[in-house]
Specification:
Chain lengths: 530, 282
C-alpha cells in the first residue's frame, strides 16, 4: 500500500509536467521555491554556529516549520485530494496499511525533501562532534515526522469541517494573519533589523518556554549531545518520538472514523431577518442591499477589507517604526488604502461570476447601470472611508503626530472617489474572466488575461494618486492654518471632489457598459468563482 | 412535421424584411418567440448555423438535441445574454437585440448552470430578483414568500443558497425568473439533476404558467419529459433545427425518443469490444 500511494503521489507530480501550461509553470515555480527554501534554511541554520543563542534560534525555526505544516494543508485542503480521507473511503482498504501509505506519500515530494535538507543545516550550525551530528540527523528526521503526523492529524480531524462550506470560509480567513505576517516581515523587520532593534539577542528567553515543545526538544537534544550530555539528549529524542507516536495514533483513530463517517457538508446556516435592507431606495438600493449583505457574509469581501487595513498600515510602517517619522508617508497610506478599495473591486462582473446573469437579464438601460455602479460604490464608500481614515489616524497617533490623521482624511475621501470611479470604468471597459487560485480565497485573472488585471491595478493606483494630487496640494498649503479651517473647509471640499470623481466614473462606466452587457455576461459566465 | 427544407424555404421567405421586425400577414398572431437566421460561430466551430423558430403564445415548447447541439448557445442568444453573429430574435414582437429593455421586461430566464447569489438566503434572493426587476419592495417580498411556498422552499427560505441542493437551486432560479410575472420563460435544462419530487413541482408550475396564456421554451435531452409536457417540439442538431412542429407532428406516430434517434442518427457501438462486461464473464 505504501509503495502504491508513493507511486501515485510521484505520478501526480510528474503528470503536472505533462499537463497544461499553467500546471507546468506552477510545478516549476513550486519546485524552485522548494529548492530555495532548502538552500536558504540550510544556510541560515548553519550561520548560527558559534552564537550563544543558536539553540534558541534553531528552536524558533523548527517551530516555524511545524506551524507551516499545520497551516498550509488546511489552506490547500480543497485542492489536494490526498488530504481528504473521503477520496479513499470508497476503496476496500484497511486503516493501518492505508495510514502507512499516506504517511509515506506525505513524506514524498519536493517540499518534504526541502524540509529535510534545509533542517540538516543544524549539523553545521548547532551540532558539534560525531555524536552531535548523529543526534542532529535523528532529531531532524523526528522533527519532520512530527510535522507530517501533526499536519495529517489536524487535516483528517477537520476533514468533515473543511469539506463543508463553513469550513472553507474559515480556512479562507487564515490568509489574513499570513498576509499581515508577510507585510510585517517585508516592511517592519528589515527596517528594525537595519536600525539594530532586532538582533540575535532578541530571541533570548524564547528558550524558556519553547524548549518543552516538540521542536524545542529536537533542538535541545542536538545541543545536549554536542555538549556531551548523551543521556539527556536521548531522553529528549525519546520524548519527541513519543509525541510523534501519539500524533500518529490519534491520526490513525481519526482516519478510521473519517472513513466511515458521513461528511458535514449538508449542515447549513440560517440567516436572521430574511429581508434585504434599503427597501425604499429603488434599483440603486437593491444593488447596494445585496452588496452590503455580501460584505458581511462573503469571506473574500472580509478578507479584502482586512487586507486594505493591513496595506494602509504597512505603507506607513517606516513612519511608525523608523527614525524618519515623516508625515508624508501617512498621506501615501491614505492614497494606497483608498486605491485598493477600488483595485479589489475592479472587474465587478468577473468577481460576481455566473450569478451576474440575474442582474444582466434585468439591467439594460444606461440608468439601470448607473444605479448598479452607484449602489456598489455607496457600500464601498460607507465601509472604506471610515476604515482607511481610522487606520491613518491610528498610524498618526503611533507616530506621535495625531494631526497628520486630520490631514490624511480629506486625501482619503478624494482618493476613494477617484478609485471607485476608476474601478467602475475598468469594470466596464476591461472585463476579464476570473478563476479561483488554489489554496487561497482569491480570484485571479483566467489564463491569458493577466495583462488586463495588471493594467487595471496599475492604472487605478496611478489614476487615484494623480486625481488626489489637488487635495494633497491643498493639505500642504493649509498645513499652517487652524484645525477648524482644515476640517471645516478642506474636508467637505475633498468629499465633494471625491463624490464628483466617483459620479464621473459611474457615468462613463454605465455609458461604456450599456452596449456590452452580453460581453460582460459572458465574462461572468466563464468565471469560476467558487 | 417541418423538415430542414421547409426551414430553408421559411428563411428564403424572410429575406428583405424590415430591420428589427419580422413581416407577417395582416391579422396573423404575433408569435411569442420568433427566431430567424440566428447564427453563432466560436472560432472554427459554427455552434448555431442559422436557426428559424416560431413559438406561438401559450405554448409549452421543448428544444431538444444531443449534447453540444447548440441548445444553450441558442437560448443564450434568444435571451440577450450572448451576442449573435447574425439573425433576429423577437419576444412578443419586441426585438431582443435592438430593444433589450422592452424585451427583457417580458422575459424570465433560467440558465443551465444555475449559479446564484450564494450568500443570500432563498427569501433574500427572490426579493433581490424582484427589486432588480423594478417591483416595489413590499410586492417583491410578498411574491417571494408566495413563490417559495409554491416551490416547496418555505422551510428553507432563511437558509443560504450556498447550502441548497441542485434541485433547490433550480427551483430558486425558477422563482427568480417568475417573480416579475414574465409572459415568456426560457429555461435551459430545467430538470437536469433534479429529484423527481422537485421535478414534479417545477412541471406543475410550468403547466399552470402556460395555462394562463404565457409561453415557455425549455431545452432538454430527456425525451420522456418533453413528450409528456410539451405541445411543441423542435429538434436541434449540429446547430440546425432538423425538425419542428407540434409534438405529435415531430414524433410522427413513434415515440419522441425513436423519432429523435432517427433524425439525429444512432451512435455506432461495437459491443464485441465489451465482451468481458457482465456477471457471466470473468
Amino acid at each position: 500500500m505504501a509503495r502504491l500511494l508513493v507511486q501515485l503521489k510521484l505520478r501526480l507530480l510528474l503528470n503536472a509536467l505533462h499537463s497544461s501550461r499553467t500546471a507546468k509553470i506552477s510545478f516549476i515555480v513550486s519546485t524552485t521555491f522548494a529548492v530555495l527554501l532548502a538552500i536558504g534554511t540550510f544556510l541560515v541554520l548553519a550561520s548560527f554556529r558559534g552564537k550563544s543563542t543558536s539553540v534558541d534560534l534553531t528552536a524558533v525555526i523548527f517551530t516555524v516549520f511545524a506551524f507551516g505544516w499545520l497551516i498550509m494543508p488546511i489552506m490547500v485542503f480543497s485542492v489536494d485530494a490526498t488530504l481528504d480521507p473521503a477520496t479513499l473511503a470508497l476503496y476496500p482498504l484497511r486503516t493501518r496499511p492505508l495510514a502507512t501509505g499516506l504517511l509515506a506519500a506525505s513524506a514524498t515530494g519536493a517540499w518534504p525533501l526541502a524540509n529535510v535538507i534545509g533542517l540538516l543545516g543544524v549539523t553545521v550550525g548547532l551540532a558539534s562532534g560525531a555524536l552531535g551530528v548523529i543526534v542532529a540527523v535523528v532529531a531532524v528526521a523526528l522533527q519532520v515526522l512530527f510535522c507530517i503526523a501533526l499536519s495529517r492529524f489536524v487535516t483528517t480531524s477537520l476533514a468533515g469541517l473543511l469539506r463543508s462550506r463553513r469550513g472553507r470560509d474559515l480556512a479562507a480567513f487564515l490568509i489574513i494573519p499570513l498576509f499581515a505576517l508577510y507585510e510585517f516581515f517585508a516592511q517592519v523587520v528589515p527596517k528594525a533589523t537595519a536600525e539594530g532593534k532586532i538582533t540575535a539577542a532578541s530571541f533570548t528567553g524564547f528558550d524558556s518556554w519553547m524548549r518543552w515543545l516538540p521542536p524545542g526538544l529536537a533542538a535541545h537534544a542536538i545541543q545536549d549531545a554536542s555538549a556531551g550530555h548523551i543521556g539527556l539528549a536521548l531522553a529528549r529524542l525519546a520524548a519527541l518520538a513519543a509525541v510523534v507516536i501519539v500524533f500518529v495514533w490519534l491520526w490513525v483513530r481519526s482516519l478510521s472514523r473519517a472513513l466511515v463517517t458521513s461528511d458535514t457538508s449538508t449542515q447549513s446556516a440560517r440567516v436572521h431577518g430574511a429581508k434585504l435592507p434599503l427597501a425604499r431606495s429603488g434599483l440603486r438600493g437593491a444593488v447596494a442591499a445585496r452588496f452590503w449583505v455580501y460584505q458581511r457574509r462573503e469571506p473574500l469581501s472580509l478578507v479584502f477589507w482586512a487586507m486594505i487595513a493591513v496595506i494602509t498600515a504597512a505603507v506607513s510602517a517606516s513612519s511608525v517604526f523608523g527614525h524618519n517619522r515623516h508625515p508624508g508617508v501617512i498621506i501615501a497610506s491614505a492614497i494606497f488604502g483608498a486605491a485598493f478599495v477600488g483595485i479589489f473591486h475592479v472587474n465587478s462582473a468577473g468577481l460576481t461570476g455566473p450569478a451576474f446573469y440575474l442582474e444582466a437579464t434585468a439591467l439594460s438601460r444606461s440608468r439601470d447601470l448607473r444605479a448598479y455602479f452607484a449602489g456598489q460604490n455607496l457600500v464601498l464608500a460607507v465601509i472604506g472611508a471610515p476604515l482607511v481614515v481610522a487606520v491613518c489616524f491610528a498610524l498618526a497617533a503611533a507616530a506621535g503626530r495625531p494631526g497628520v490623521g486630520v490631514e490624511a482624511a480629506p486625501v482619503v475621501l478624494a482618493a476613494l472617489g477617484a478609485a471607485l470611479g476608476l474601478s467602475n470604468l475598468f469594470t466596464a471597459v476591461l472585463p476579464y474572466p476570473t478563476v479561483k487560485r488554489a489554496g487561497t480565497p482569491f480570484l485571479v485573472a483566467a489564463p491569458g488575461y493577466g495583462g488586463y488585471r495588471i493594467g487595471a491595478v496599475l492604472a487605478t493606483l496611478a489614476g487615484t494618486a494623480v486625481a488626489a494630487a489637488p487635495v494633497i496640494i491643498g493639505v500642504v498649503l493649509a498645513a499652517s492654518d487652524s484645525l477648524a479651517v482644515r476640517i471645516g473647509v478642506l474636508l467637505p471640499c475633498a468629499a465633494i471632489y471625491g463624490f464628483l470623481l466617483a459620479l464621473a466614473g459611474v457615468r462613463l462606466a454605465s455609458a461604456a457598459a450599456v452596449g456590452k452587457l452580453p460581453e460582460l455576461c459572458q465574462v461572468a459566465m466563464r468565471s469560476a468563482v467558487s | 412535421m417541418n423538415t430542414p427544407a421547409d426551414g430553408a424555404r421559411a428563411t428564403d421567405s424572410l429575406e428583405g424584411l424590415a430591420y428589427g421586425r419580422v413581416n407577417r400577414p395582416a391579422g396573423a398572431p404575433v408569435p411569442a418567440i420568433a427566431v430567424h437566421g440566428l447564427r453563432k460561430r466560436f472560432g472554427d466551430k459554427e455552434a448555431v448555423a442559422g436557426i428559424d423558430l416560431d413559438i406561438a403564445a401559450g405554448s409549452l415548447a421543448g428544444l431538444v438535441g444531443p449534447n453540444g447541439a447548440g441548445k444553450t448557445t441558442s437560448l443564450s442568444m434568444m435571451t440577450g445574454l450572448l451576442r449573435p453573429d447574425d439573425g433576429r430574435v423577437e419576444v412578443n414582437g419586441l426585438n431582443v437585440w435592438t430593444d433589450p429593455p422592452a424585451a427583457k421586461a417580458v422575459m424570465g430566464v433560467v440558465p443551465a448552470e444555475v449559479r446564484l447569489f450564494e450568500r443570500l438566503s432563498g427569501a433574500e434572493l427572490l426579493e433581490y430578483a424582484g427589486r432588480l426587476r423594478g417591483l416595489p419592495t413590499d410586492e417583491a417580498r410578498s411574491r417571494a414568500v408566495q413563490l417559495l411556498d409554491v416551490l416547496d422552499l418555505s422551510g428553507d427560505a432563511n437558509r443560504l443558497v450556498a447550502d441548497y441542493s441542485t434541485g433547490m437551486r433550480k427551483k430558486a432560479a425558477l422563482g427568480c425568473a417568475l417573480i416579475h410575472n414574465p409572459s415568456v420563460l426560457f429555461l435551459d435544462e430545467p430538470l437536469e439533476g433534479v429529484d423527481p419530487v422537485s421535478a414534479d413541482v417545477i412541471r406543475r408550475l410550468l403547466t399552470r404558467f402556460v395555462g394562463s396564456g404565457s409561453t415557455v421554451l425549455f431545452s432538454s435531452h430527456v425525451m420522456e419529459l418533453v413528450e409528456q409536457v410539451c405541445d411543441h417540439v423542435s429538434i436541434i442538431d449540429k446547430g440546425k433545427i432538423v425538425a419542428t412542429g407540434t409534438t405529435d407532428e415531430v414524433r410522427g406516430g413513434k415515440s419522441l425518443q425513436r423519432a429523435f434517434i432517427d433524425l439525429v442518427g444512432p451512435r455506432a457501438t461495437d459491443e464485441e469490444v465489451l465482451s468481458w462486461l457482465g456477471s457471466s464473464s470473468s
